[in-house]
């Protein structure tokens, strides 16, 4: 009888099927009843070494590269439109590959305004070579994510084990793949990089980058050691997080209140960051090798909500995720991921992100106010802008340039916007 796993649980495939060398991983997704939406969903696998990175692009198995170079993993065609299948030969997996996450992503999610919360559920099944079901896992907790790490195969003490994960990302395959070392760059990101490189840097940020550089190198090395030692949460806080809050983010001891109780709740916040006696940010800490999943995000966001603080920082010492928490009228609150930083995958944008959560960034440059202002502006559609003469004129010009035989008029464009505005609001 197959073992049914809950999110976060794991099982030894070696123990439940000792002589099984070939397995099949089946990924299925079910739409909600009577749902006519068409989804373009892809499964992929990443063959990772001890540092959670691929050795090269050949270790990324997906629709354009369906088989690994060593024939250990193959993405094969399924007769069903709502499933994808991986064939895995365990003995063929190279000895330096320790972990194989299986991911699911939505193609053109932003353009189609889709996310995995629109599905009823995702089902993962592990089958033996004779198609006996060994393990199953059902994911039903997806929300606004457009990429999911469903599960992973990993080696432990000479055994192959399977873990149910269900960790979501809102930025799709490109961000997920880059996290594992795949070199993916979209047109929009190239353009954004060009724009960023052409903009003059704020002198304050330049000075900040110069000041933190030696500390960054120091804590990157400490984080690598901490990972190899698999430090627990208390050790991670002492060895890594405390120092980063002080030496990289610039908070003094009086700015950092540890182990703070939440009034009227049986909850304790790991860190409460205060400036001029005002709480500005919650910091929720996890152990160094903890994968930051939905449970941890919900916990960190809830703490900020109960304390009536706009921002919460979730970290395991390596990954740092900033969330903006917004109370809502018809439900308690919503949260938005502002950015995610990996200190071991350092690029040119990381220092500016660190500066925005630093003591000087918040106190002197009002970075949190800037973030809130931008989010509000991006979330709000102003129809006085949409109906302005400049916007209408540009729309007419673009449409008629692409389709000169149509001769679209200004009033026709206005009528289309008017008739669709309720849909746009949704």
Structure overview:
The protein is of the alpha+beta class. The protein folds into 3 domains: 3-189, sav2460 like domains (Lipoxygenase-1, Sandwich); 199-379, tt1808, chain A (Alpha-Beta Complex), CATH 3.90.1570.30; 383-425, no CATH class. 34% of the residues lie in helices and 30% in strands. The protein has 13 helices and 18 strands. The protein has a 6-stranded mixed β-sheet, with no helix packed on it. A 6-stranded antiparallel β-sheet has the order 2-12-11-8-4-5. It has a 6-stranded mixed β-sheet with strand order 13-14-15-16-17-18, with helices on both faces. The two termini are 45 Å apart. The relative contact order is 0.09.
Nutshell version of this structure?
It contains 13 helices and 18 strands. It is of the alpha+beta class and 426 residues long. The chain folds into three domains: 3-189, Lipoxygenase-1 (Sandwich); 199-379, tt1808, chain A; 383-425, no CATH class.
Layout of helices and strands:
Layout: E1 3-5, E2 10-12, H1 13-16, E3 22-31, E4 41-46, E5 60-61, E6 73-76, E7 83-89, E8 99-106, H2 109-112, E9 119-127, E10 133-139, E11 147-156, E12 159-169, H3 172-179, H4 187-198, H5 203-229, H6 233-248, E13 256-261, E14 268-275, E15 278-285, H7 294-306, E16 311-315, E17 319-327, E18 333-342, H8 350-356, H9 359-363, H10 367-379, H11 383-386, H12 389-402, H13 410-425
Parallel strand pairs: 1-10, 15-16
Antiparallel strand pairs: 2-12, 3-7, 3-9, 4-5, 4-8, 6-7, 8-11, 9-10, 11-12, 13-14, 14-15, 16-17, 17-18
